[in-house]
Design goal:
The structure holds 2 protein chains of 2 kinds. Chain A is an alpha/beta fold. Chain A has an 11-stranded mixed beta sheet with strand order 1-3-2-4-6-5-10-11-9-7-8, with helices on both faces. The two termini of chain A are about 15 Å apart. Chain A has 2 domains: about 5-260 and about 475-480, Alpha-Beta Complex (Amidase signature (AS) enzymes), CATH 3.90.1300; about 305-380, no CATH class. Helices cover about 40% and strands about 15% of the residues of chain A. In chain B, α4 runs antiparallel to α5 (about 230-250), α9 (about 335-345) crosses α11 and α11 runs antiparallel to α12. Helix content of chain B is about 40%, strand content about 20%. In chain B, β12, α5 and β13 form a beta-alpha-beta unit. By secondary structure, chain B is α+β, with helices and mostly antiparallel strands. Chain B has 17 helices and 16 strands. In chain B, the strands form 4 sheets. Chain B has a 9-stranded mixed beta sheet with strand order 2-6-7-10-1-11-12-13-14. Chain B has a 3-stranded antiparallel beta sheet with strand order 5-4-15, with no helix packed on it. The chains are: A alpha/beta, B alpha+beta. The interface of A and B includes residues 105, 203, 209 and 325 of A.
Amino acid sequence: MNPAALTLHAAGEKLRSRELSSQELTEAVYRRIGETGDRVQAYITLCRDAALAQAKQADDRLKRDGAAPPLLGIPIAVKDNFLTRGLGTTCASKMLGNFISPYDATAIKRLRDAGAVIIGKTNLDEFAMGSSAENSAFFPTHNPWNLERVPGGSSGGSAAAVAADQCIAALGTDTGGSIRQPAACCGVVGLKPTYGRVSRYGIIAFASSMDQVGPLTKEVRDSALLLEALAGRDPADSTSVERPVPRYSEALSGDVRGLRLGVPREYFVSGMAPAVERAVRDAIALLGKNGAAVEDISLPHTEYAVAVYYIVATAEASSNLARYDGMRYGHRAAGKDLNETYRLSREQGFGPEVKRRIMLGTYALSAGYYDAYYLKAQRVRALIKKDFDEAFQRCDAIITPTAPTTAFKIGEKMQDPLQMYLSDIYTISINLAGLPALSLPCSFDQDGMPIGMQIIGKPFDEATILRLAHAYEQATEWHKRKPNL
Amino acid sequence: MAQEKTESLKRMKYESVIGLEVHAQLLTESKIFCGCSTKFGQEPNQNTCPVCIGFPGVLPVLNRKVVEFAIRAGLATHCEIARTSILARKNYFYPDLPKGYQISQYELPICTEGYIDITVNGAAKRVRLTRIHMEEDAGKNIHDLHGDSSLVDLNRAGVPLLEIVSEPDMRNANEAGSYLRTLRAILQYLGICDGNMEEGSFRCDANVSVRPAGSAALGTKVEIKNLNSFKAVEKALAYEIERQSDALADGGTLIQETRLWDENREETRSMRSKESAHDYRYFPDPDLLPLVIDDGWIEEIRASLPELPQARKDRFISEYALPAYDAELLTGRKDIADYFESALKTYSNAKAIGNWIIGDLFRVLKERKLDEQLYIARWPARAEHIAEMVRLIDQGKISGKIAKTVFDALLDSDRPPQEIIAEKGLEQLSDAGSIEAAVEQIISAHPKQIADFRAGNEKIFGFLVGQIMKATQGKANPQKVNEVLRQKLQASG
């Protein structure tokens, strides 16, 4: 077996037993990228020399330390909106085309501290705005299951890299579904932790009240192991939370008996592909058969989620992206005066979707509109959160599809932003409510494209959704399928 | 003459309404949202890091000391301290504003509804405060140093500020000046702001409007910026009040606008009208959680507040029996009040020591421009030496007149007054023998004047005393000279 195809936990075992070295594993990953990279185009930047140096260090440590930590020597891909010291960090934008990170994001620092090997930076929708990775200023990424399809987005590069065995695991960020939806599109596991669980310091902000870092992996256990390393309070992020970090990998008992699962009726509506509905209902039935209690629930404010999200997220983005003004770093146009420099730098530096969202957000915050848009959206956001609070009085986890369809064709939705926004219809409520949620493969459609199931948990109860997902994974074979590249 | 009279009558009909916004730079070691130093006068952009330069991915972390200082200011000005307050983003583009927004407070500031009592021409007045809030300072754009380009220095970006907003309670430039001085003294006493207007650590924008006297409605408001000294504030307000009153008296109307004070031409000119005002699109900063302050912390800070200027002034009046005027001058600056009280530890004649400080020492401070410094680290003379000198005057060892010479010699000297007096032979002649000798010498040297005096010209007496003092180089005890001279003249008459 090609070592690049290994899961994180399997590769870790081989590294610790000295059956495989980190350098061999890293070389295997780069070889795989060399063979299949052109077709998938998952990466914006590769850093082979630095990665091999890290792998060598990991091997030195593995020689000394038989009880090495689980990430030691594991090649990991990172979405290109994480600051990675000394490496280009573009956010898939012309605006940051020449930007080199002066510091490491906290998540990156934690990966490095755990001994992980960073192999490159993956493609995304510009500034993480999009659901297909087509909004990258550089090139679209292709879905390894069908190269004519999108990998989902915005963490499309990370999801595709994991699915194509071009890394062992990857990091993404999720503001409205940007980890879970591409995970579903590419048939991998994607976990968005509770807001505040993982530090946001050093990820390029899109919508600060919803952005969250999380893993994309080949199996559930890998996500548990990565979250253990990533989670925890960071003094540099005031919104990160002081709570003990459980050993998530120890929660994977394989047992779902006694767990109460809620199935929200508002999530099974028209617009959903029949194959998706069938797959998710089958998965729920399987969990029920294995001992979970399944119950229909209602999340009555679901229908407002898309509208609320596109006000709150764009409002925050309009302010977060103000710093890209051509003054201190990034793209700068030669204007004849200050205002023209601002205008041209931003006009040339940002792509159309980013501009659209900056304009929407600016409008929502403007004098005279603030109350009607931003403030009202925040009130409805509180109602959406309350829906979940009430549902979680009765159940331990909520199960829904991750996305209404499987991966669509490249170019199919680029001319229709609203259709594109609806790709996230099942994921954005979770960001509005700050909850943890995970997507894992639960079937394939008639075209052989993976289907994702979303498991939503109580705040800071990642352990339960990981346990459920792992038990489902153990009972099925979906995660073992590989795309034929 | 008639013209002048109509002019002044016209003006009499209007009353001005003034509110002030002060930005006070806080004396914290580090910036408000990162660990960078706040030290002034460093190389450009030396005090910066990814956070205060606004790099991608960075997040702000609120400096606890800034919150503490804001609470101090709020408690000292009788404000309500909000148990929950919100940091908000104020969005606008400018090269000295790295993030494209300033983190400030908008709805729910940390302090609301306070007041400051001021004294204007001996009368007490209360000025209410609308709010005090925390925010970050911007950097500085530097023009004219590098060809056509402007340079940006971000050392100041992220230095903590308090914005202190008054109600429109002031009615003339004097009240505004007194409010500013009192506010500055309070902040200095609290140790949270050095209050230097010239260096920009204490900045003031003024809102002023005029209205027909007695009217309750407010007139059209004009904001004045670029006020870099107390004098500038007072002059600009006086100018603006006259400009607005004249405009109304001539039947004109005013527009709501921002005007800049031109220090050289001593006038205000229009900068922008209300129509071109920014829409700052304030909204709560999602990177910072609502700031929750518990009662325990507030009480802890309240207990640690120092004695404030008003209380100290009252105490100086009651404890040292000082006139209100003296007490006001001595407590206007914390370092001066401290200096005064440290002198009192050596000798207790408060009135006399106070007079030396207010008179002679203040003159020296002014000459040396030390009065423009925020905090006098090196005093021209040691407080205990001033006190010792006053003791020697009271003991009759030196005359008040000679003391002026002693005072001058005390400047920049570590030697106590006794030593100076001994060395220069300045000790007052009080022994009867020496004084009699001096008196007799003068009497015999001025026979004509003695005759005049005896003929009834009393003025001659003063002349003779002067001659004796001159002959003794001022060292003779004037009281004794008087006594002895009177005796001699009577005896020999």
